[in-house]
Design a protein that fits this description.
The protein is an all-alpha fold. The chain is 55% helix and 0% strand. It has a domain of 36 residues. It contains two helices and no strands.
Length: 64
C-alpha cells in the first residue's frame, strides 16, 4: 500500500519555491534575529532584590 504523502525533501522544496512562504520565512527569521537576544536576556534578569538578616556571626581569632 502506498500513501501519497510528500516526502520531507519535497516539502522543503515547496517551501523554498513558494515566494509568499519564502517571504514569510525571511521576515520571521529577521524578527528572531532582532528580538531573540533581548527576550533571552529578559528571562535571566533578576526580578527581586532582597536581603534578609539571618543572624549575627562573630569571628574570633585562634590564639596559639
Amino acid at each position: 500500500m502506498t500513501l501519497d504523502r510528500p516526502r520531507p525533501r519535497d516539502k522543503r522544496r515547496g517551501r523554498i519555491e513558494n515566494p509568499a512562504t519564502l517571504a514569510t520565512n525571511v521576515t520571521e527569521a529577521v524578527n528572531q534575529i532582532i528580538w531573540e537576544p533581548t527576550r533571552i536576556l529578559k528571562v535571566y534578569e533578576v526580578q527581586a532584590h532582597r536581603v534578609e538578616p539571618i543572624g549575627v556571626v562573630y569571628l574570633w581569632p585562634i590564639s596559639g
